[in-house]
Amino acid sequence: MSQKTFSRTMGVVLLSGMLAFSASSGAHPISQIRFAVDPSYPPFESKQPDGKLVGFDIDLGNALCAQLKAKCIWIESSFDSMIPGLKARKFDAVLSDMGITEERRKQIDFTRPLYNTPVQLVAGKDTQLLPTAASLQGKRIGVEQGTVQERYAQAKWQPHGVEIVAYDDQAQVESDLVAGRIDALFTDGAQAELGFLRTPQGQRFALMGPPVHDPIIGPGTAIGLRKGSTELKQSLDQAFDTLVENGTFKRIMDNYFTTDISVPR
C-alpha cells in the first residue's frame, strides 16, 4: 500500500471514529432553553414587585437548566397564545402548568409527565355550589383562556345553561370573582388553595366539591415542545429523571405544596 493510500485510509477511519463519538456524546449540546410562562398563576409562576419571576415551575425549570448546564431564558406569554407562539418559534418550550391532552398532542409534543394536581371549583363558602352542570345551571363560571378547565367547562357545562366566561389571565378571573361579576371559578386546585384562597381577598371563598377527573383534563402536567424537538425532549426527560433520583424535585415540591403532586413512575 502506498503512503498516500495508507494516509487516506487512516484519515477515513479517524473521521468515522470522530463522527461516531460525536453522535454518541451529543454533537450539539443544548446551551440555552427559552421557556414560555404565564406569571399570573401562583404558586406555579408569578412576578414579584421587582419584576423577578418566582414559583414552582420557575424553580423546576432552573433546576433542569442547571442539570443540563444550559441557560434558562423565561419569556412571559398569555396562556392561550403559548401553543401558537411555540409553533412560531418564539420560545423553545412551555413550562407553565400545561396539562397533557389529546387535543394539544395534535399540535405539540410533551415531555414525560412532571406532576399532577387536581382541577377544582372555587366559590363563596356559603354557596354550596358543586362542579356539576345541575348545580351550576344559570351561573357564571370564570376560567382562564386556553386551559383544560375552559375546554371542560365549555364541553360539559355550557350546553346545560352554564355561562362560561374566559379571561386572558388568572388574576382577572380571581378579581371578577371577588367583585361578584362571576359566581365561581374553575382552576387548578393547588393554584387556588395556595395562590388565591390564602390571600386576604380569597378568605370568603373555598374549594367546592371533589376534584374533577375527565379525559379532557388529561393525566398530568408536562413541558410542551414543538413537534420534532427530539433532542430537547430526550435531554429534558433525562434531566428530570436525575432531579427525581437525587431528591431535587422533592425538595422543590416540598417548598410549595403540602401534598405529593408527583406522578407515579
How would you explain this protein's 3D organization?
This protein is of the alpha/beta class and 265 residues long. The chain folds into 2 domains: 32-116 and 220-255, Periplasmic binding protein-like II (D-Maltodextrin-Binding Protein, domain 2); 119-212, Periplasmic binding protein-like II (D-Maltodextrin-Binding Protein, domain 2). It is 38% helix and 22% strand. The protein has 10 helices and 13 strands. The protein has a 5-stranded mixed beta sheet. The protein has a 5-stranded mixed beta sheet with strand order 10-9-11-8-12, sandwiched between helices. Strand 9, helix 6 (148-156) and strand 10 form a beta-alpha-beta unit. Helix 2 (56-68) packs across helix 9 and helix 2 (56-68) packs antiparallel against helix 10 (248-256). The longest helix has 23 residues, at 3-25. Mean pLDDT is 90; it is low at 1-27. Keywords: Signal. Residues 1-27 form the signal peptide. It comes from Sodalis praecaptivus. It is found in: Cell envelope. Residues 32-260 form the Solute-binding protein family 3/N-terminal domain.
